[in-house]
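Hello, quick one for you while I still have it in my head. Could you read through the record and tell me how the tokens relate to the sequence? No rush at all, and the record is pasted right below.
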Amino acid sequence: MSGAVQRGFGRGGKDLGCPTANLPDESIIPMSSVTKTGVYYGYAQVSRERDGKMVLSEEDAKVLPMVMSLGRNPFYKNERMSAEIHVMHDFQIDFYGHNMKVMVLGYIRPELDYGSREALIEDIETDKRVALKSIARTGYQQFQLDPFFDNANQPKL
């Protein structure tokens, strides 16, 4: 999946302590037609360039671990499907408008409707741990070097 990062509802960072990048609706069509809704893990990369200028640092533009919620987020009663990607990295600046590439490697769990925000936050933290443990397994790091990504500033494994 890929597309320009756009503004969402602002809930990820403010309400949940888990900032997310939202991709345009059309970027999720290929994936949503072949899979079920839920939480996924893999790698993501944000383009350094926006509007013809280098904006992000090399560190911020590396291929990085991610978790993604794909669906309607029943806790928030969303009416349309969305892809909300949390890249596990502390970015120096916002990257709205930058192109993001996302490679999904596995499925963690289905979407759930939570009785409380705290229960949702607890599962999000578990999702992040599961994602990091999953990509730490033998063979998963090689996907960081996939030609899908821009590997100019990616360290060799």
Notes: The beta strands are 2-4, 21-22, 38-46, 49-50, 53-54, 64-71, 82-87, 99-109. The chain has one domain: 2-145.
